[in-house]
Amino acid sequence: MSEDLFGGGVDAAAGAVAAVGTTGGSLSDADRPGLPLAVRMRPRTLDEVVGQGHLLAPGSPLRRLAAGEPMSVFLWGPPGTGKTTIASVVSRQSGSKFVEVSAVTAGVKEVRAVLDQARRDLARGERTVLFVDEVHRFSKTQQDVLLPAVENRLVTLVAATTENPSFSVISPLLSRSLLLTLKPLTDADVSGLLDRALVDARGLAGASTLDDDARNTLLRLAGGDARRALTYLEESAAGAAATGSAVITTDVVERAVDRAAIRYDRDGDQHYDVISAFIKSVRGSDVQASLHYLARMLGAGEDPRFVARRLIILASEDIGMADPTALTTAVAAAEAVAMIGMPEGRITLAHATIALALAPKSNAVVAAIGAASADVAAGRVGLVPPHLRDAHYAGAKTYGHGQGYRYAHDEPHGIAAQQYLPDELVDATYYVPTDHGNEAAVAARLARIEERLGRSASRAAR
């Protein structure tokens, strides 16, 4: 099943392949009573899709696709942003048959069966929109099966992925398709959907109202996922009605989703308080507190990329040379989160959080660049020593540039004893390593280097 906006698609039998024989595709029975609110409120046209205005301008690929222009597209974005819905609406508006294949369970045999049927339908004048959910899970062999169908426009391929297709989709298939990036839904987008569901005849039809605190709670718990927001709204409305009330309050929402509201406001003081506590806990090497605040942020819908960026900063600011691998770990975590998205990304962030919390700490790098920057800001720059100046141009030797320069690789231990700093700063010391972790070994090496350079290793930092 799809993870996307109002997803639900069509359950597949024997391999998770399903073809819907109506042009409405998986939206064709959205008005049937008894369906979940998130299904009933699926957009019926592209104009009802929210949060993706950059893809819906007049003349845009999606507009042309909905008008029946044959093309293939990849929809890349986080869960709950509308990938399945867009594919279904495109099939409805273009008058095409909608067929959904899940890459989780469909194999080469099932994909070929769908394409064979699409070929027969095309011979009768009926076009097929083939929606492949989680296409990043398709093997190279499965993707190769799709290639001729896309190249010959046997089907209109709409493929959805939460991972960067550049890393997970074969280049021949990607080069024959358009890549459209869906943006995460904002609180305003999701709030608008809640308003629509409260009054729409397909939704709650005015039977319930939502107070402001409850709305904010729903937005926090939904975390930008439209389907989740509508599911919580439906359960909350049922909970309020069971008590004889038409007003949905925060208490009702909390009971409906069977969890306490997370006291965290992404745009207010709590946002800054919790991220501050998170960073200070990692800096203080308290793994348990670090994980608590991480879970608290992610549970409230905080952007995981924001958390990853803060860990990258912390890796240099608070760990530095005490464990040089910390920065590599943090950067790798950020890249992984960008590639795989949520919810799996929370595991990667936890991995990085634990590693950084347990790492030895040092702010010597911060102190070093701070001291060097202070000298530069104060105008203590001086002239570059002549032997270090560029000598690769005509007339350089006339000025003495490069004369007397000693090439480090020709010297014992690869260290050339000569003056590197300007005269005004010849005794300056910026980096003073601690004895924490790897930096203890760095300190010992630095002392030997300073000695070979003819400088005192015991100079105090300025």
TrEMBL record:
BP terms from Gene Ontology: DNA synthesis involved in DNA repair; DNA-templated DNA replication
Claim: ATP-binding is one of the keywords in the record: yes
Claim: Coiled coil is one of the keywords in the record: no
CDD domains: AAA (cd00009), HLD_clamp_RarA (cd18139)
Keywords for the protein's UniProt record, in alphabetical order: ATP-binding, Nucleotide-binding
InterPro entries reported in the protein's UniProt record: AAA+_ATPase, AAA_assoc_2, AAA_ATPase_RarA/MGS1/WRNIP1, ATPase_AAA_core, DNA_pol3_clamp-load_cplx_C, MgsA_C, P-loop_NTPase
Domain AAA+ ATPase per the UniProt entry, residue ranges: 69-185
Entry similarity comment: Belongs to the AAA ATPase family. RarA/MGS1/WRNIP1 subfamily.
Record-linked PANTHER family: ATPASE WRNIP1, WERNER HELICASE-INTERACTING PROTEIN 1 FAMILY MEMBER
Protein name as catalogued: Putative ATPase
